[in-house]
Amino acid sequence: MPAHHATTPDPPRRRADAERSIARILDAAVDALAGDPEASMAQVARQAGVVRATIYVHFPTREALLEAVTHRAIAEVARVIDAAEPDRGPPAEALGRVVTETWRTLGRYHALVAVNTEQHGAEALRDRHASVLDKLHPLIERGQADGSFRSDVPVAWHLSMLLALMHAAGAELGAGRIGEADAGPALAATILGALA
Amino acid sequence: MPAHHATTPDPPRRRADAERSIARILDAAVDALAGDPEASMAQVARQAGVVRATIYVHFPTREALLEAVTHRAIAEVARVIDAAEPDRGPPAEALGRVVTETWRTLGRYHALVAVNTEQHGAEALRDRHASVLDKLHPLIERGQADGSFRSDVPVAWHLSMLLALMHAAGAELGAGRIGEADAGPALAATILGALA
């Protein structure tokens, strides 16, 4: 720890320290889960280079830690979707861009997705992804309006299929049935085909 | 109970009775789960018109009962796929036929599928469906060979996406986001698009 910790820190500094500590724990949790989906709090602590008690200060249970990691990952995906500009250009092209960028981001999180998929039913998963799916809603509507996407099903159908395909692709990659370089393009083609 | 039960039944008769009893319990379990995915052994017994002890004779735990129900449902789907003749006619047409018939059969089992999806990860689900997916393997290969289905991905990818879309469609129907009459055709179109 840096020397200034020995002096009494002012509250903003203390808050910043806590935030950094939380970020380090969440990063460590992502890495630990990637190595072992059953990773314990002790393994996460080791990975983060902190004592276990430090983790428990912020996350009283492993479940709470998983929730926080998931929440942060979904928020990251939401930012990535915004950056991919879903409202720009032809709908199929825009969706291809969004899927490719999202998939790239998910690269770090496949193990986390697998853990979540195993622990929650379809409805709970959909609820968790509401903030992300909401961002795609206007794009799907736009594509239905101009004939790029099928309009004989509700927008919700397309969004659920997209989510299911994303997660299934992660499982294929995790099981080694497809290579990392092939999975992204295959996923984009599969999703665009499913919606067209 | 019929009167002949009062006499000492010969072993084949006893076996037939046991099989009928098991079938009645499995049917009741399917119906009870459809009404309440958390249905207890007591609810299943009530539905089957037997005392709880009779169920426990055949299924020592609720988990064992769910396994048996799942096993029987998947065997039923396998028979339905055979009857739909996946090897007959153009691959896209054959797959459309198989999907439509499978979906019709799944009508009884959406709650069971939801329970299973909630309890097992993607790999475990895929393993459980191996007997069914194996039946579709030659059809997907045939479609890849004649250009009906994309051949830049392994057959396993197409099969996993198909399974994921089937289950996601069941969830959409269960959540009431699509009607029963629309779900089947929408699913067939989505799957054919995803593979094309």
Task: Give a written overview of the molecule.
The first copy, chain A, contains 10 helices and no strands. The mean pLDDT of chain A is 90. Chain A is elongated, with a radius of gyration of 19 Å. Chain A folds into 2 domains: 60 residues, Arc Repressor Mutant, subunit A, CATH 1.10.10; 130 residues, Tetracycline Repressor, domain 2, CATH 1.10.357.10. In chain A, helix 1 packs across helix 2 and helix 4 runs parallel beside helix 8. Chain A starts with 10 loop residues before the first helix and ends with a helix. Chain A is mainly α and 196 residues long.
Summarize the structure.
2 copies of one chain form a homodimer. Chain A has 196 residues and is mainly alpha-helical. Chain A folds into 2 domains: 1-60, Arc Repressor Mutant, subunit A, CATH 1.10.10; 66-195, Tetracycline Repressor, domain 2 (Orthogonal Bundle).
Oligomer description: homodimer
CATH overall fold name of the largest domain in chain A: Tetracycline Repressor, domain 2
Q: Strand share of the residues of chain A?
A: under 5%
Number of strands of chain A: 0
Rg over alpha carbons of chain A:
19 Å
Main β sheet profile of chain A: none
Biggest chain-to-chain interface with counts: A-B, 38 and 38 residues
Would you identify the CATH architecture of the largest domain in chain A?
Orthogonal Bundle
Number of helices of chain A: 10
pLDDT below 50 for ≥5 consecutive residues: which ranges of chain A? none
Keywords (chains A, B): DNA-binding, Transcription, Transcription regulation
GO molecular function (chains A, B): DNA-binding transcription factor activity; transcription cis-regulatory region binding
InterPro entries (chains A, B): Homeodomain-like_sf, HTH-type_TetR-like_transc_reg, HTH_TetR, Tet_transcr_reg_TetR-rel_C_sf
Protein name (chains A, B): TetR/AcrR family transcriptional regulator
